[in-house]
Design goal:
By secondary structure, the protein is α+β, with helices and mostly antiparallel strands. It has helices at 48-70, 73-86, 89-95, 148-157, 179-191, 196-203; strands spanning 2-3, 10-11, 110-117, 122-124, 127-138, 161-171, 174-177. Strands 3, 4, 5, 6 and 7 form a 5-stranded antiparallel sheet that branches. Strand 6 (161-171) and strand 7 form a beta hairpin. Helix 2 (73-86) packs antiparallel against helix 3.
Length: 259
């Protein structure tokens, strides 16, 4: 209950003005003989050390999450695959090992059409491998009219998903992609889809104007009837000789001795 400082009337509750003279109730009396009445409030004070502790714990949690999850080999491999597929050069250089910065996975006429990796890595000490699937294609901007026919043949051969591995190595406390070993894994998988005489061209990442021809098939076993090379000369001409069961005639001037 508040007492009016002007008329001394008693006011119930927390009214701002006196019910009798309408004077403000929080105004001090003219003679200073009465105490000002205030409604008690609630104030909360948080010590600054506690605030800094909370912020430090939150920051440590973010850093711990990064090193526990974002630096795992399968996560680094996923970042690498996305960077290669979408041409994110800055992202690519962040996750590859020293010496591979600025060097793309493919720099010739081949390019990556699809690149996905598994979510489980096989770790062996300071090296890890992550299974991946990659699909190659021919970069149309690098095909000339002279190489168009060869490019069409090669594109049909490599139009499939290749099972490969993204290879990672430990550099300090971080996992990095060993791009040279990853590239070897990719070409080893891709060259199995083309004939042997074209594997060197594919690994060289070039398309010639004229594709090399496959080597001639090996000759058959001599002496087997109907087999290539049985009674055939080197030039493809048939060799003359007696028919089966007919004795051969001696050459002129040659005496054939009896048995």
């Amino acid at each position: 209950m508040a007492t009016c400082p002007k008329c001394a009337a008693e006011n119930r509750g927390t009214k701002a003005a006196c019910w009798n003279c309408w004077s403000p109730l929080d105004e001090a009396p003219a003679g200073g003989g009465r105490e000002r009445v205030r409604t008690p409030g609630i104030s909360v004070s948080v010590p600054w050390p506690l605030v800094f502790l909370i912020l430090a714990v939150a920051a440590a949690g973010v850093v711990g999450y990064f090193y526990m999850f974002a630096s795992r080999p399968e996560q680094v491999a996923a970042i690498y695959a996305d960077a290669v597929l979408n041409g994110l050069d800055a992202r690519h250089d962040e996750v590859v090992s020293q010496g591979s910065q600025g060097q793309p996975l493919l720099s010739g006429v081949l390019s990556v059409a699809n690149f996905t990796c598994d979510t489980v890595a096989e770790v062996n000490g300071d090296q890890a491998t992550v299974p991946a699937t990659c699909r190659l294609t021919i970069d149309g901007d690098k095909v000339t009219p002279e190489t168009a026919a060869s490019a069409l043949v090669i594109s049909k051969m490599i139009d499939r998903d290749f099972n490969m591995s993204i290879v990672l190595v430990k550099e300090g406390s971080e996992w990095k992609v060993d791009q040279r070993a990853t590239q070897d894994s990719l070409f080893a998988a891709a060259t199995r889809s083309v004939p042997p005489h074209l594997q060197g061209m594919l690994r060289g990442n070039t398309i010639p104007k004229v594709l090399p021809q496959a080597p001639a098939a090996a000759a058959g076993t001599p002496g087997r009837p109907g087999a290539p090379g049985a009674g055939a000369a080197a030039g493809g001409q048939l060799a003359t000789g007696p028919a089966p069961g007919v004795p051969a005639r001696p050459a002129p001037g040659v005496v054939q001795l009896g048995r």
